[in-house]
Amino acid sequence: MSRALSGKVAVVTGGTRGGGRGIAVELGSAGATVYVTGRSTREGRSEMNRPETIEETAELVTAAGGTGIPVRVDHLEPEQVRALAERVDRDHGRLDILVNDIFGGDHLAKWNTPVWEHSLDDGLRMLRLTIDTHVITSHHLLPLLIRRPGGLVVEVTDGTAEYNAANYRINTFYDLTKTAALRLAFTQAHELREHGGTAVALSPGWLRSEAMLDIYGVTEANWRDALTEVPHFAISETPAFTGRAVVALATDPDLARWNGASLSSGGLAQIYGFTDVDGSRPDAWRYLVEVQDPGKPADVTGYR
């Protein structure tokens, strides 16, 4: 499987860090050429003001065995996305995988704050960062993807359709962003079907992103030190786990069976058999429903 995507071309938007970086690198490890887009470069940071850059991600893609190509793109700007599509077309004449992982709104979300108390500007910015960016990106890049049957679109979100339908997600604005991504996958699945394409929504579990590790004051090497304060963090997973889920989908000869589906990294691991970097298969969304949300003591036995 190490070269299963050799010759394939992917665009991973929001590939600067977190799940986007994990997906890009794992696609690279499978041999793909990966365009990594985002706003944070070595020349300047996005509004999130974090140190990770698209150049670093692209270098990791290449080191993993693929070809990483960093392209600075603000996906709220249609002309920048159009230019990206034209570049991919000019360089390769095809697009096989589109991963819509743009968000960058975590710093705008106020937990458990009602809509009338939440900053309206921040809330609307969150919606634009998810809905507008994803739609603009698909509008310009899907004409490339439908040239050949078998294309894959992955709408990355937070929470499965089943979980989000029954649970309030942080605040009205954040909830809407994650619901919108689920629906975008559903609608694009309908539109891609006649072209032999597949669109899915994919949710990581509790992601050990760079930002999350910083919040808990740990690194990937000692992340378990956070369990004293946050015991349910034991179910967390690396960004590579989500990346391996995307690779499993992209290399599945029966990919179309998932068209329009809401999927999770943990759920797909049970089906495809891939593991996280530590050899485990954390099933975070089942764990949340059966252990964390009911208020049971943290115990990942049988969940990873």
What brief labels describe this structure?
globular, 7 strands, alpha/beta, 304 residues, Rossmann fold, seven-stranded parallel β-sheet
What does this structure look like?
The structure is a single chain. The chain has 304 residues and is of the alpha/beta class. The protein has one domain: Rossmann fold (3-Layer(aba) Sandwich). Helices cover 41% and strands 12% of the residues. It has helices spanning 18-29, 54-64, 78-92, 120-145, 161-166, 172-192, 210-215, 239-250, 265-272, 284-292; strands at residues 9-13, 33-38, 67-72, 97-100, 152-156, 198-203, 262-264. Helix 1 links the parallel strand 1 and strand 2. It is globular, with a radius of gyration of 18 Å. The two termini are 23 Å apart. The mean pLDDT is 96.
Nutshell version of this structure?
The chain is an alpha/beta fold. Helices cover 41% and strands 12% of the residues. The mean pLDDT is 96.
The largest sheet, given as strand count, sense and whether it forms a barrel, is:
7 strands, parallel
Beta-strand percentage range: 5-15%
Assign the CATH class: Alpha Beta
CATH superfamily: NAD(P)-binding Rossmann-like Domain
CA radius of gyration: 18 Å
| Fold-level CATH name | Rossmann fold
CATH architectural category = 3-Layer(aba) Sandwich
